[in-house]
Amino acid sequence: MGRWLASAALWLVWGSFTFADKKSFSFRDRNCGTAPRGNVISESRIVGGHESQIGAWPWIVSLQFIKVVNKSVHLCGGSIIKETWILTAAHCFKLSREPQFWIAVIGINNILKPHLKRKEIKIDTIIIHPEFKHITFENDVALVHLKRPVTYNNLVQPICLPVLYGIPKITETTRCFISGWGKRTEGGTLTPSLQEAEVNFISRRTCNAVGSYAGRVPNTSFCAGDNFGNVDSCTGDSGGPLMCYFAEHDKFFLTGITSAGVGCGRAFFPGIYTDVQLYEPWIKKQWYLEDLRGKNEISIVRGKIIIIMAFIVLFVPI
Protein backbone atom coordinates (compact mmCIF):
# COMPACT_ATOMS: atom_id res chain seq x y z
CA MET A 1 0.00 0.00 0.00
CA GLY A 2 2.80 2.41 0.92
CA ARG A 3 4.64 1.75 -2.34
CA TRP A 4 1.39 2.29 -4.31
CA LEU A 5 0.89 5.67 -2.61
CA ALA A 6 4.46 6.69 -3.43
CA SER A 7 3.91 5.71 -7.09
CA ALA A 8 0.70 7.73 -7.18
CA ALA A 9 2.54 10.72 -5.71
CA LEU A 10 5.20 10.37 -8.41
CA TRP A 11 2.56 10.50 -11.17
CA LEU A 12 0.85 13.44 -9.46
CA VAL A 13 4.10 15.42 -9.45
CA TRP A 14 4.67 14.62 -13.13
CA GLY A 15 1.13 15.58 -14.08
CA SER A 16 1.16 18.87 -12.19
CA PHE A 17 4.35 20.01 -13.91
CA THR A 18 3.07 18.90 -17.32
CA PHE A 19 -0.08 20.96 -16.77
CA ALA A 20 2.04 23.96 -15.77
CA ASP A 21 4.06 23.62 -18.99
CA LYS A 22 0.86 23.86 -21.05
CA LYS A 23 -0.20 27.15 -19.48
CA SER A 24 -0.81 29.65 -22.28
CA PHE A 25 1.42 32.69 -22.66
CA SER A 26 -0.31 35.87 -23.79
CA PHE A 27 1.32 38.98 -25.23
CA ARG A 28 -1.85 41.05 -24.86
CA ASP A 29 -3.43 42.24 -21.61
CA ARG A 30 -7.11 43.13 -22.02
CA ASN A 31 -7.05 45.34 -18.90
CA CYS A 32 -4.11 47.46 -20.02
CA GLY A 33 -4.15 51.21 -20.57
CA THR A 34 -6.85 52.10 -18.05
CA ALA A 35 -6.52 54.31 -14.99
CA PRO A 36 -9.14 53.33 -12.36
CA ARG A 37 -8.33 56.33 -10.17
CA GLY A 38 -7.86 58.97 -12.87
CA ASN A 39 -9.94 60.90 -15.41
CA VAL A 40 -7.01 62.54 -17.12
CA ILE A 41 -8.42 62.69 -20.64
CA SER A 42 -11.04 65.24 -19.56
CA GLU A 43 -8.30 67.77 -18.67
CA SER A 44 -5.19 69.19 -20.27
CA ARG A 45 -2.42 68.02 -18.16
CA ILE A 46 8.24 68.27 -16.56
CA VAL A 47 8.50 71.58 -17.95
CA GLY A 48 5.23 73.39 -18.51
CA GLY A 49 3.24 70.66 -16.76
CA HIS A 50 1.67 70.23 -13.36
CA GLU A 51 1.22 67.65 -10.62
CA SER A 52 -0.77 64.62 -11.71
CA GLN A 53 -3.70 63.05 -9.91
CA ILE A 54 -2.92 60.07 -7.68
CA GLY A 55 -3.38 56.97 -9.82
CA ALA A 56 -3.63 58.90 -13.08
CA TRP A 57 -0.76 56.95 -14.65
CA PRO A 58 -0.70 53.60 -12.80
CA TRP A 59 1.88 52.04 -15.13
CA ILE A 60 4.64 54.53 -14.42
CA VAL A 61 7.65 53.27 -12.46
CA SER A 62 10.53 54.99 -10.68
CA LEU A 63 13.77 53.18 -11.50
CA GLN A 64 16.12 53.87 -8.61
CA PHE A 65 19.85 53.29 -8.27
CA ILE A 66 21.05 51.86 -4.97
CA LYS A 67 23.90 54.10 -3.77
CA VAL A 68 24.36 52.46 -0.37
CA VAL A 69 22.43 49.83 1.58
CA ASN A 70 18.78 50.92 2.04
CA LYS A 71 19.43 54.18 0.18
CA SER A 72 18.36 54.63 -3.43
CA VAL A 73 17.85 57.61 -5.74
CA HIS A 74 15.49 58.13 -8.66
CA LEU A 75 17.31 58.16 -11.99
CA CYS A 76 14.74 57.23 -14.62
CA GLY A 77 11.14 56.41 -15.31
CA GLY A 78 9.71 53.28 -16.87
CA SER A 79 6.39 51.71 -17.82
CA ILE A 80 4.79 48.45 -16.69
CA ILE A 81 3.87 46.46 -19.80
CA LYS A 82 3.39 43.06 -18.13
CA GLU A 83 3.41 41.68 -14.59
CA THR A 84 7.17 41.17 -14.58
CA TRP A 85 8.26 43.56 -17.34
CA ILE A 86 9.12 47.26 -17.49
CA LEU A 87 9.99 49.14 -20.67
CA THR A 88 12.44 52.03 -20.38
CA ALA A 89 15.38 53.73 -22.12
CA ALA A 90 18.73 52.02 -22.63
CA HIS A 91 20.73 55.13 -21.70
CA CYS A 92 19.27 54.99 -18.18
CA PHE A 93 21.78 52.26 -17.31
CA LYS A 94 24.91 54.24 -18.07
CA LEU A 95 25.97 54.02 -14.41
CA SER A 96 25.52 50.26 -14.24
CA ARG A 97 23.83 47.42 -16.09
CA GLU A 98 24.04 45.14 -13.06
CA PRO A 99 20.49 44.43 -11.81
CA GLN A 100 21.51 44.15 -8.14
CA PHE A 101 22.14 47.91 -8.07
CA TRP A 102 18.59 48.80 -9.13
CA ILE A 103 15.06 48.64 -7.77
CA ALA A 104 11.70 49.41 -9.36
CA VAL A 105 9.34 51.48 -7.21
CA ILE A 106 5.65 51.21 -8.15
CA GLY A 107 2.30 52.48 -6.88
CA ILE A 108 3.52 55.97 -5.99
CA ASN A 109 2.86 59.59 -6.84
CA ASN A 110 5.48 61.09 -4.51
CA ILE A 111 8.88 59.38 -4.57
CA LEU A 112 9.78 60.66 -1.09
CA LYS A 113 6.62 59.89 0.89
CA PRO A 114 5.71 56.42 2.19
CA HIS A 115 2.46 54.96 0.87
CA LEU A 116 0.51 51.80 1.68
CA LYS A 117 0.61 50.62 -1.94
CA ARG A 118 4.21 51.64 -2.57
CA LYS A 119 6.27 48.58 -3.49
CA GLU A 120 9.99 48.23 -4.08
CA ILE A 121 10.77 45.31 -6.35
CA LYS A 122 14.21 43.89 -7.04
CA ILE A 123 15.33 43.47 -10.62
CA ASP A 124 16.27 40.11 -12.11
CA THR A 125 17.58 41.10 -15.56
CA ILE A 126 18.33 44.26 -17.55
CA ILE A 127 18.15 43.76 -21.32
CA ILE A 128 19.67 46.56 -23.41
CA HIS A 129 18.80 46.62 -27.11
CA PRO A 130 21.86 45.12 -28.84
CA GLU A 131 22.06 47.97 -31.37
CA PHE A 132 21.78 50.85 -28.90
CA LYS A 133 24.17 53.71 -29.70
CA HIS A 134 24.77 56.10 -26.83
CA ILE A 135 26.18 58.92 -28.96
CA THR A 136 23.19 59.15 -31.32
CA PHE A 137 20.55 57.58 -29.00
CA GLU A 138 19.53 55.17 -31.76
CA ASN A 139 17.59 52.16 -30.46
CA ASP A 140 17.34 53.76 -27.02
CA VAL A 141 15.20 51.03 -25.50
CA ALA A 142 15.65 48.50 -22.70
CA LEU A 143 13.59 45.89 -20.89
CA VAL A 144 13.70 45.28 -17.15
CA HIS A 145 12.60 41.88 -15.86
CA LEU A 146 11.46 41.89 -12.24
CA LYS A 147 12.27 39.22 -9.68
CA ARG A 148 8.60 38.87 -8.82
CA PRO A 149 5.37 39.92 -10.56
CA VAL A 150 3.59 43.10 -9.58
CA THR A 151 0.08 42.92 -8.13
CA TYR A 152 -2.39 45.01 -10.08
CA ASN A 153 -4.60 47.41 -8.14
CA ASN A 154 -5.98 50.95 -8.52
CA LEU A 155 -2.45 52.39 -8.46
CA VAL A 156 -0.65 49.68 -10.44
CA GLN A 157 -1.74 48.74 -13.97
CA PRO A 158 0.00 47.89 -17.26
CA ILE A 159 -0.08 50.15 -20.31
CA CYS A 160 -0.97 48.79 -23.75
CA LEU A 161 1.49 48.28 -26.59
CA PRO A 162 0.15 49.77 -29.85
CA VAL A 163 0.91 47.10 -32.47
CA LEU A 164 -0.86 44.38 -30.49
CA TYR A 165 -4.09 46.38 -30.96
CA GLY A 166 -3.45 47.55 -34.51
CA ILE A 167 -3.01 51.17 -33.42
CA PRO A 168 -1.93 53.47 -36.28
CA LYS A 169 0.98 55.89 -36.13
CA ILE A 170 0.27 58.99 -34.07
CA THR A 171 -0.34 62.31 -35.80
CA GLU A 172 -0.57 65.99 -34.85
CA THR A 173 -4.20 65.45 -33.77
CA THR A 174 -3.55 62.50 -31.42
CA ARG A 175 -3.87 63.36 -27.73
CA CYS A 176 -0.62 62.40 -26.05
CA PHE A 177 0.83 62.93 -22.58
CA ILE A 178 4.17 62.67 -20.80
CA SER A 179 4.77 62.12 -17.11
CA GLY A 180 7.71 61.86 -14.75
CA TRP A 181 9.65 63.06 -11.72
CA GLY A 182 12.20 65.02 -13.73
CA LYS A 183 13.32 68.63 -13.38
CA ARG A 184 10.77 71.35 -14.02
CA THR A 185 13.39 73.74 -15.34
CA GLU A 186 16.77 73.30 -16.97
CA GLY A 187 19.32 73.32 -14.15
CA GLY A 188 16.63 72.78 -11.51
CA THR A 189 16.10 69.84 -9.16
CA LEU A 190 14.02 66.68 -9.44
CA THR A 191 10.38 67.01 -8.42
CA PRO A 192 9.21 64.57 -5.72
CA SER A 193 5.61 64.63 -6.99
CA LEU A 194 4.73 63.08 -10.33
CA GLN A 195 4.28 65.72 -13.04
CA GLU A 196 2.36 65.49 -16.30
CA ALA A 197 1.83 67.50 -19.46
CA GLU A 198 0.00 67.17 -22.75
CA VAL A 199 2.30 67.26 -25.78
CA ASN A 200 1.91 67.48 -29.54
CA PHE A 201 3.46 65.07 -32.02
CA ILE A 202 6.09 66.78 -34.19
CA SER A 203 7.15 65.09 -37.42
CA ARG A 204 10.76 64.01 -37.82
CA ARG A 205 10.98 66.23 -40.90
CA THR A 206 10.08 69.32 -38.87
CA CYS A 207 12.25 68.27 -35.95
CA ASN A 208 15.26 67.59 -38.17
CA ALA A 209 15.07 70.93 -39.98
CA VAL A 210 17.90 73.46 -39.97
CA GLY A 211 17.47 75.64 -36.89
CA SER A 212 16.20 72.66 -34.93
CA TYR A 213 18.00 69.29 -34.66
CA ALA A 214 19.36 69.54 -38.22
CA GLY A 215 19.23 65.83 -39.00
CA ARG A 216 20.28 64.51 -35.58
CA VAL A 217 16.98 62.81 -34.70
CA PRO A 218 17.47 59.12 -35.64
CA ASN A 219 14.96 57.15 -37.69
CA THR A 220 14.13 55.15 -34.57
CA SER A 221 12.72 58.22 -32.80
CA PHE A 222 10.25 61.09 -33.15
CA CYS A 223 9.71 64.46 -31.45
CA ALA A 224 6.92 65.74 -29.21
CA GLY A 225 6.21 68.87 -27.20
CA ASP A 226 5.90 72.20 -28.96
CA ASN A 227 8.30 74.26 -31.02
CA PHE A 228 8.27 77.12 -28.51
CA GLY A 229 9.57 75.13 -25.55
CA ASN A 230 6.46 75.62 -23.41
CA VAL A 231 6.11 71.88 -22.72
CA ASP A 232 9.00 69.42 -22.53
CA SER A 233 10.49 66.47 -20.67
CA CYS A 234 13.71 67.04 -18.75
CA THR A 235 16.48 65.31 -16.79
CA GLY A 236 14.96 62.57 -14.61
CA ASP A 237 12.07 61.95 -17.02
CA SER A 238 14.23 59.66 -19.20
CA GLY A 239 12.78 56.21 -19.78
CA GLY A 240 9.30 57.37 -18.87
CA PRO A 241 6.27 57.03 -21.11
CA LEU A 242 4.83 59.11 -23.89
CA MET A 243 1.30 57.76 -23.85
CA CYS A 244 -1.48 58.44 -26.33
CA TYR A 245 -5.23 58.01 -25.93
CA PHE A 246 -7.31 56.28 -28.59
CA ALA A 247 -11.04 56.76 -28.03
CA GLU A 248 -12.06 53.73 -30.12
CA HIS A 249 -10.37 51.50 -27.55
CA ASP A 250 -10.84 53.83 -24.55
CA LYS A 251 -7.25 53.05 -23.58
CA PHE A 252 -3.82 54.64 -23.34
CA PHE A 253 -1.01 53.21 -25.46
CA LEU A 254 2.74 53.44 -24.92
CA THR A 255 3.88 55.08 -28.14
CA GLY A 256 7.16 56.66 -27.02
CA ILE A 257 9.96 56.40 -24.47
CA THR A 258 11.54 59.62 -23.20
CA SER A 259 15.00 59.52 -24.74
CA ALA A 260 16.92 62.73 -25.46
CA GLY A 261 16.87 66.44 -26.23
CA VAL A 262 18.88 69.65 -26.11
CA GLY A 263 18.40 71.26 -22.70
CA CYS A 264 14.88 71.50 -21.31
CA GLY A 265 12.09 73.65 -22.68
CA ARG A 266 14.20 75.29 -25.37
CA ALA A 267 12.42 76.73 -28.39
CA PHE A 268 12.77 74.61 -31.55
CA PHE A 269 14.33 71.74 -29.59
CA PRO A 270 11.42 69.56 -28.41
CA GLY A 271 11.88 66.25 -26.62
CA ILE A 272 13.01 63.18 -28.57
CA TYR A 273 11.19 59.89 -27.95
CA THR A 274 11.99 56.32 -28.98
CA ASP A 275 9.27 54.96 -31.28
CA VAL A 276 7.89 51.96 -29.39
CA GLN A 277 6.07 50.47 -32.39
CA LEU A 278 9.40 49.73 -34.07
CA TYR A 279 10.49 47.52 -31.17
CA GLU A 280 7.45 45.37 -30.44
CA PRO A 281 8.88 42.34 -32.32
CA TRP A 282 12.06 42.63 -30.21
CA ILE A 283 10.01 43.03 -27.02
CA LYS A 284 7.91 39.94 -27.77
CA LYS A 285 11.05 37.94 -28.55
CA GLN A 286 12.52 38.82 -25.12
CA TRP A 287 9.24 37.85 -23.44
CA TYR A 288 9.25 34.52 -25.22
CA LEU A 289 12.90 33.78 -24.40
CA GLU A 290 12.39 34.62 -20.73
CA ASP A 291 9.24 32.47 -20.60
CA LEU A 292 11.23 29.62 -22.18
CA ARG A 293 14.03 30.10 -19.66
CA GLY A 294 11.51 29.90 -16.82
CA LYS A 295 10.05 26.67 -18.20
CA ASN A 296 13.53 25.18 -18.54
CA GLU A 297 14.20 25.96 -14.87
CA ILE A 298 10.90 24.28 -13.95
CA SER A 299 11.90 21.25 -16.02
CA ILE A 300 15.20 20.98 -14.15
CA VAL A 301 13.41 21.11 -10.79
CA ARG A 302 10.84 18.61 -12.03
CA GLY A 303 13.59 16.23 -13.12
CA LYS A 304 15.27 16.38 -9.72
CA ILE A 305 11.99 15.74 -7.89
CA ILE A 306 11.09 12.83 -10.14
CA ILE A 307 14.52 11.23 -9.66
CA ILE A 308 14.16 11.51 -5.87
CA MET A 309 10.60 10.13 -5.94
CA ALA A 310 11.64 7.27 -8.24
CA PHE A 311 14.51 6.40 -5.91
CA ILE A 312 12.10 6.30 -2.97
CA VAL A 313 9.62 4.10 -4.87
CA LEU A 314 12.25 1.65 -6.12
CA PHE A 315 14.80 1.41 -3.34
CA VAL A 316 13.43 2.63 -0.02
CA PRO A 317 11.56 0.02 2.00
CA ILE A 318 8.02 1.13 2.76
UniProtKB/TrEMBL annotation:
Q: Can you give the residue ranges of the Peptidase S1 domain?
A: 46-288
Sorted alphabetically, the Gene Ontology cellular component annotations on this record are: acrosomal vesicle
Please state the span of the N-terminal signal peptide per the UniProt entry.
1-20
Q: Pfam family of this protein, just one?
A: Trypsin
Q: Name one GO molecular function term.
A: serine-type peptidase activity
GO terms classed as biological process: protein processing
Q: Which UniProt keywords apply?
A: Disulfide bond, Hydrolase, Protease, Serine protease, Signal
Superkingdom in the source lineage:
Eukaryota
State what protein this is by name: Transmembrane protease serine 12-like
* Source lineage: Eukaryota, Metazoa, Chordata, Craniata, Vertebrata
